[in-house]
Amino acid sequence: MQRTPDLLQAVIAVSHQAGEHLKRFYARSVHVRTKSDNTPVTEADLFISRFLTEKLTALTPDIPVLSEENCEMPLELRSKWQEYWLIDPLDGTKHFINRTGQFGILIALIQHNRPTLGVIYAPITGITHYAMKDYGAFRLQNGRSVRLRPRRIDPSKPLKIAIGSELAIAKVRSILNENIRAEFVVHGSSGLKCAMVADGQADCYIRLGRTGEWDTAAGELLLEELGGNALDDHYRPLTYNQRETFVNPDFVITADASVDWKTVFQFNLS
């Protein structure tokens, strides 16, 4: 399928429609249960998953949709896909439950195992970040779309590192080059942390712990369009739809691919 600005705008509109539903769930108490991987899921996750799947299928009937909440498909079948939608209907479920407002809706188009279109929508702030391969990265706020610009990380300033919780600080410091000064920015939702890097509020987002491919696809593309990159714990690109598991390895997603990140984070040494 050809990527076009019209398709991108249609996907943004779908994310905003889903966000309206999500805000209604957020305004009341929701039923929560624990999944087999010991993570929480709410009725909001499941509703938004169905909603996005239906809307994206209507938009592109020939392209399958893979959701965090509907991913029971063996690699043998899905490896034949040349393209598919990859969605996280509620990125930051714990933050949704704890009412921090730090959650988002993530939609990515994967083509030939790489993200080529991505939308990150934060319903509470109303801010949308979006990107398309070779098209650029943008922030949409209050009806105004602004093209985001690449930037170089200034080595003379402390490195701003986005992480998911205060508890992660010690773990990240254990693999951080001791000669590098760092400041930590704590925020919920993988997608929203990628958006913070895109906006210059952080220089990189590091995750030492469990995430899924749906957590990173849209954010990775957003930063790639700005000259950044995503590296796993062996300093290789993240992969999509190439393993039986959807669980990501530890990774760092950055604003500046020109930095030698091997000299910043020593993965597998902690």
Strand % is 25-35%
Helix content: 25-40%
How many alpha or pi helices?
7
Using only CA atoms, what is the Rg? Answer: 18 Å
Strands, count: 14
Write down the CATH topology of the largest domain.
Fructose-1,6-Bisphosphatase, Chain A, domain 1
Regions with little confidence, pLDDT below 50 for 5+ residues: none
- The CATH superfamily of the largest domain is Fructose-1,6-Bisphosphatase, subunit A, domain 1
User: Biggest sheet, strands in spatial order?
Assistant: 3-4-5-6-7-8-9
Question: Would you write up a description of this structure?
Answer:
This protein is 29% helix and 27% strand. With 270 residues, it is α+β, with helices and mostly antiparallel strands. The protein folds into two domains: 5-147, 2-Layer Sandwich (Fructose-1,6-Bisphosphatase, Chain A, domain 1), CATH 3.30.540; 159-263, 3-Layer(aba) Sandwich (D-Maltodextrin-Binding Protein, domain 2). A seven-stranded mixed beta sheet has the order 3-4-5-6-7-8-9, sandwiched between helices. It has a five-stranded mixed beta sheet with strand order 11-10-12-14-13. A two-stranded antiparallel sheet has the order 1-2. The radius of gyration is 18 Å and the shape is globular. The relative contact order is 0.14. The model has no long low-confidence stretch (mean pLDDT 95).
Provide a quick synopsis of the model.
The protein has helices at 5-26, 43-59, 75-78, 93-98, 168-173, 190-199, 213-224, and strands at residues 32-34, 40-42, 65-67, 83-91, 104-111, 114-122, 127-132, 136-141, 144-147, 159-163, 182-186, 204-207, 229-232, 251-254. It is α+β, with helices and mostly antiparallel strands and 270 residues long.
